[in-house]
Amino acid sequence: MPKIDLTKWNFKVWGLVEEEKEYNLDEFRLLPSTKVFSDIHCVTSWSKLNNLWEGVSTSFLKDNVLSEAKFVLVHAYKNFTTNLPIKEFFKEDVIFATHHNGEELSTKHGYPLRLVVPQLYFWKSAKWVTGVEFLESDKSGFWESHGYHNHGDPWTEERYSYR
User: Fold this and answer.
1) Total domain count for the chain?
2) How many whole angstroms separate alpha carbon 128 and alpha carbon 115?
3) Which end of the chain is less packed: N or C, by CB atoms within 10 Å?
């Protein structure tokens, strides 16, 4: 787990955007909050049902994104990344979570910020998020470049790239 200095933490938005932006933790916490109720599915075949997530909807970024952006690369501590098609990233239930089941996220589970993408396998829900890069073409994230499926739909068992 990374040791995160919260006084230096920031969330950066760049790539195919009208304006690059950065938010420190206090600024990010002032963004409108929402709650999402969802299940989560791990690639190792377990699921956790009935999760309540609280945080900031990814939709807060929508107005700043250029039309040629088709993919998102989510960046996190220790150079971790995960990729998503922009249509998945902006689904209504995708949020940057700060709380899980009424409690602030623990460091183990991604504090201070975790992406939650309920419709995909949980490796797409990056922990310790530091920013989002909008791209015209797809770029594999960490797990995707190490054999995991590029999309990760649990209902069609998109677990590994060899399938």
Assistant:
1) 1
2) 8
3) C
Whether residue 108 is contained in a domain is answered as: yes
Helices (H), 19-107: 25-29, 86-89
For residue 79, give both structure tokens. Answer: 């150079």
Length of the chain: 163
Q: Is residue 162 situated within a structural domain?
A: no
C-alpha to C-alpha distances, 141 to 18, 26, 84, 125, nearest whole angstrom: 24, 28, 9, 12
Q: Whole domain around residue 136: which residue ranges?
A: 10-156
Tell whether pTM > 0.85: yes
The answer on pLDDT for 163 being more than 60 is: no
- Asked whether 117 and 94 are in contact (CB, 8 A), the reply is yes
Kindly state the greatest CA–CA separation across the chain: 43
Neighbouring CB atoms inside 10 A of 64's CB total 15
Residue type (1 letter), 67? S
Indicate left, alpha or beta for 95 from its phi (over 0: left) and psi (-120 to 50: alpha): beta
* The predicted structure's pLDDT at residue 46: 78
